[in-house]
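Example (one chain per record):
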Amino acid sequence: MFTGIIKSIGIIEDIKQENDSLRFFVSCPKIYNEAELGSSVCISGVCLTVAEKINDDLVFELMPETLRKTIFRNKKPGSKINLESSLHVGDELGGHFVYGHVNTVGKVVDIKNEGEDKLVSIEVDDEYKKYLVAEGSVAVDGVSLTIARTNKNIFTVSLIQYTLLETTLGILQIGDEVNIEFDMMLKYLENLVKNKI
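Predicted structure:
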């Protein structure tokens, strides 16, 4: 489990094919020492397991299902990614509960400057608009954000200077794809109502 508060930006140094999966070699000095073999790390919104530590890189194995559902199918060496270590007992809950289970890939459709900040609008498939709630929580590439407003299947988030500088959201451009995880509470509520439990 994670909070969506990014600890550092890492770089994919290399990608190697291994059968149907891919192995990502990630440079991440800020969390390298605390990451142990078998521990979970949230990489741009996806919960992955540290498979190896080679030289100064953490190695993660991405299965076909992960590649189908996330932006990682299009990543290349040199790509920047958001990193967060798993939540520990006693850690501050500064964002919201993020599970690292990406629901869908969204597309950036608009970026507007608002002083030093930015308003970024992201489009998702129609089937997911039921999870778009103004002032509700959403994780975009692993970053805990509040939805400022919605318009059908498009939601807008406001990014402050800190977020723009300390996460990969600051380099987003129109047309870019991002990993989206909706608030788990909404999904549980939907399941309860649907099944009348």
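Caption: Helices lie at 29-32, 64-69, 161-166, 184-195.
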